[in-house]
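Appendix B. One record, verbatim.
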Amino acid sequence: MKSNIRIINIPGKNFGFRGNVNFTRKIKMPGRHALVSLLITLVIFAPIYYFIHPAVNIQNPGFWGMTIVFMLVYLMIKGIRIERSHEDKESAVLPAYIFIALICLFLLARFADSRIFHAKKYSSILTVQEADIDSIPTVSASSAIALMDTQSAEKLGDRKIGSLSHVVSQFNVGSYMQINYQGSPVKVAALAYDGFFKWYSNHKTGVPGYVLVDPVSMSAEYTALQEKLRYVPSAYFNEDLDRHIRFRFPTVMYDGLHFEIDENGKAWYVASVYKHTVGLFGGKQVTGAIVADPVSGEVTKYDAADVPDWVDIVYSGDLICMQYNDYGRLSHGFLNSMFSQADCKQVTTLERRDDDGDTESYSDYGYIAIGNDIWIYTGVTSVNGDSSNIGFILSNERTEETKYILCAGADEFSAMRSAQGEVQEKGYVASFPSLINVDGVLTYIMVLKDGNDLVKMYSAVNVEQYNTVAVGTTQIECLNKYRKLIGAETPADEKSFDGFEEKTITVTAIESIVIGGDTWIYVADEEKNIYRAEYSDVIEMMFVKTGDTLTIYTDGDNFILQAQP
């Protein structure tokens, strides 16, 4: 049946318009205007995404935030066009609904993912195994324990770079990372461009090298690379490594981009790939790593089980501490963590005041080299906030294998204050300690620094009795004194000092001086060098006289008579 209705034009006066309105054209107009508004918004957001580049992933809060802002800008442009061209206002209704819906969904997802509803899931992300104190390195492995903190490493690295005029004028030193290199713990940092103009002047040749700091010998060395680093985090535009990785993996969520070197000294950058295991935004867990070659720009994504052995940091210490806190607090449910707090524990936490005077809490941890891996260690305490530990955790930063060691004693910050009290007249500050096993006795060992963040002394503090404290100018001197305090015998092969070299000298003068109740032997040689040692470590010196030729092991200041094992 053929319709007789043929309405083409409608008198405008019936709708408040002058003249006639073409109804067919009126229906098509919103689509065309909407497309123009969308194109304008895309043009605005293209450079914004280039610089911000969040992962295009529904689990990424940053992507949601950018999408919401995108819709807001679109609505603003749409409103301007409606205002100027008298476009139908109803065409903006649907985008406004989408904008409101996105905000509501985002807030709802954040709330639904909270620990209130998923305490058990959060508490089961980290797997913790019971272990004994044998998991802690013994004192014979003290040379494999990095006792230098990042601030001290920065000072040594800056001094080394400061002597290289062609480098220091164009570059600064990036962030230091604790890794295991050829069986020893070291801190490494790549050079970084010192601002946009320095990058522009040097990006064609690239970053020339990196700094390696040995925390045992307290020395730093600069490694000049034959193949310069082009894709680095301090670069700009397409040479910015973070942007380079993002455009290679636009949907992958990653963080923790940092510098490492392999066993051959080749430079790499590594980032941790992660996902959320609780709802959309909760329960962060690492699933693998991205390894980038800063020379060629080649980027490879690995699953967690396939990460190369030389990579040391896949699971960050901050993430492990956060996951352990969920494990310790939420294992018996959210309500228990808030009220009765039965069997609730957390990593040791220190409160400090920020620049605004507000109190903030933070967790700290130390590093221990075990085998070919770097493990973080931190104490575990009750949530009551006292100054004692109920145990410790060790966690592998490459595999996230985590061990819990039951041992009651003082927390790390109490031990630091105790060590500082032994040298309070010097005003030294203790760094966060490491943990060692001295003949079955768990012991904190740490460095004491001066106001310039340079290491001056070492201190050992008994975990269970933190008033048992020993200090010394070297690790071994400190540990020998500590052994005497706890009644342990010093093995002969531990009277050597790491970093000492053999030297034959002719004795020109020898004196003994009592300092702080301890007797020290000072020896001068024909080159006018002066060496010192605690008398109890060099008793054989009682038979040495002026003119004798003597073979010693020295770092330039201290000396011993025993050979390195």
